[in-house]
Amino acid sequence: MALRFEVLGRFNRARAARLTLPHFVCQTPLFMPVGTQGTIKGLTTEQLEDIGAQIILGNTYHLALRPTSELLDELGGLHKFMNWPRALLTDSGGFQMVSLLHLADITEEGVTFQSPVDGKPMLLTPEESIQIQNRIGADIIMALDDVVKTTTTGPRVEEAMYRTIRWIDRCIEVFFCDSYAIGGLAGGESKDSFWRVVAQCTAALPGEKPRYVMGVGYPLDIVVYSALGADMYDCLSYTYCSLWYSSCTRGDYLNIVCKNYTRAYIHCLVTKDAMGSQLLSYHNLYYMMKVCMQISATNGDVPEWVCDAMEVAGIDISSCCTPFSSSQD
C-alpha cells in the first residue's frame, strides 16, 4: 500500500495534512520518537499510544545486526515483535557512516561495516537496505545515502552528494519514491545555516508530497520548520534528556504531565531510581506531541505561543511565514 498525503489546511507555507499509511492514519505536523532497536528507552508501547505517538522510528543497521531482519520477518515484522499497532519508519543505515565511521568502508557498491557483534563484515548496499527495511515491515522506508558530517568541506562533500543521487536511482529501481527527506543537517553547523537550507528545500520540493526533516526535534526548530512547510521530525534527545534529568518546559514554570506524582517525588527519584527517568521521558515525549498538535490546530493566525517562542529566540516570525507560491503547491 502506497502512502497517501492530503493537505487539509494551509497558512502561508505551513500546512496541516493527513498521512495515510498501512498501519495508521497520521496527522501532521508530527514528531516521531526514536526506537533505534525497536524500543523507546523506559516506555511501553501502550504508554506511547497514550501520549499520541503516531510513528516510531527504528534503525535498519542496528535491527539487521540484532535481532536480524530475517528473524523479524519470520516473527511477522517489527510491529508484532515490539507490539506496536501504529506506523513505523526505518532509517536506511546511512547515518552510521558518520556515527560508526571507524567501522565503515564506503565504496560505490555500498558501505561495508565491521560488525560490533561478531567482527564479521556486513555489506549494506542501496538495494540491500531497501530489502532489509521491507523484511522489517516498516510503513516508511528510507533510501541509503552517503552521509558526511555537516562540518565536512572540500571534495568529499561533492563526492557524497553525487554518490547519494546515484544510490537513490538504484533504490528507485527496486522500490518507489513517494516522499522527500531533508537530511545531513543538525550536526554542528550554525542554526542560521541550518534553517536556510530547510527553507530552500521546502520551497523547491513538490507540495503534494510529505517532507521529513531528519534528526531534528527541538521545539523551536519544529515551529520554524513547520512554518516553512515541513511535516515530520524525529530526535533522540527527549529520552536521552531524561537520563540527564532534564525536562521540557515552555518557560520558567515546569508543568509535569505526570499528574499522579509531585515534582518533589520526581526530583527524589531522578537522583536515586530509574523510574525518575521513565517519568521524565513520558513527560518530554508528551510535550513534543502537544507542540505538534498545537501547530496542526492553528486556525488563521500565527498562534501567540509561537510568536512568544520566536521572540525569545530573537526571530522575526514574518521572515519564516512569508507568503509562498509555487506551481507545485
UniProtKB/TrEMBL annotation:
Highest taxon above the source species: Eukaryota
- MF GO annotations: tRNA-guanosine(34) queuine transglycosylase activity
Any Pfam family hit: TGT
Protein's name according to its UniProt entry: tRNA-guanine(15) transglycosylase-like domain-containing protein
Stretches assigned to the tRNA-guanine(15) transglycosylase-like domain? 13-174, 178-296
GO cellular component terms, alphabetically, are: cytosol
Keywords associated with the record: Zinc
> Per the UniProt entry, what is one GO biological process?
tRNA modification
